[in-house]
Amino acid sequence: MKIHVIVNPNAGKRIIQRNLEQIIGKLILDGTAESIRVTRTEKTKDATQAAAACTAADTDLIIGCGGDGTINEIVNGIMESGEDIPLAILAAGTSNDFASSLRLPDEPEEFCQMVRDAHYRRIDLGLANNGTYFVNVAAFGMFTNVAHTTNRNAKNTLGRLAYYLQAAASVREQLVQVMPLEIEVDGEKLTGNFHLCLVVNSKSVATFRKLMEKADVSDGVFDILLMKKLNIFSSAAEISNRILSGDFYKLPSIQYLQGKAITFQSPKNEDIEVDIDGECFGTLPLTISVCHEAIRLMVPEASLTL
After folding, report:
1. Residues 234-271 as b or e (16 or more Cβ within 10 Å = b)
2. Which residues of the chain are under the pLDDT cut of 50?
3. What's the confidence (pLDDT) of residue 254?
4. Would you tell me which CATH number, out of the four given (2.60.200.40, 3.30.1490.20, 3.40.1160.10, 3.40.50.2300), belongs to the domain 137-293?
5. Burial bucket for residue 46 (CB in 10 Å: 0-12, 13-18, 19+)
6. Which CATH architecture has domain 2-118?
7. pLDDT at position 163, please?
8. What is the pTM of this model?
């Protein structure tokens, strides 16, 4: 097996980087890998370019090591290449929602066993504005800037808890922000005022492990969570409590949909920023189409049917 490792050396804790070194050594020594080459990214789009340059002749597997943004870049590179090269994810970020939802291993022996077993699952991707693929989530509105505003030292020290605390502390401020929207899901139109919009592939987003209860990464549809306008004074405490308890999705203001063709527009042409896989993408309007079973993902046997 010829393996290309694409790693963001700045992502996550040092232990993940040490795990990667062990994984490379084990796969070479036990004969699983015929060859392993490593690309360490230095700037934006390096991971995309490295993945796009891979061919079926020189690469049997890409191992992506980094956070959600790095994996997003690699997936875009694979799609750009036109080669059906499978991807294995060694998650190294703080939240790693997609990897967590599929129980992808990050311990060296478990990860190496996954590579030896070579089980693959075809997964869906989202395509935003006909130009950018994404693995897990497109989001805008309330809380979607939490990943960018949370202190890096706090993330390294507290992990996911840092996100919960940052979100809970800013609830009252964020409830003031309301977005008038025109939304279309598979031809069905709805309008209204919203605090939050999420379009998600897996069950996990923003460190909430079962936020999208009906989600399946291979079902050909993405799950949509909308939070309608709330009363700021009566809702701030309840939202904070539900964030910290992990059952945010049970709020009565939440509307849950599924669809394969999704459009969001701001009738007032407001500059509403969109976040895709944890990175700033641009502003509305946003059109999302689901690309069914677009890439092959290496998974443990137990995750083949999750």
Report:
1. ebbeebbebbeeeebbeeebeeebbbbebbbbbeeeee
2. 148, 150-151, 154-159, 161-165
3. 87
4. 2.60.200.40
5. middle
6. 3-Layer(aba) Sandwich (3.40)
7. 47
8. 0.88
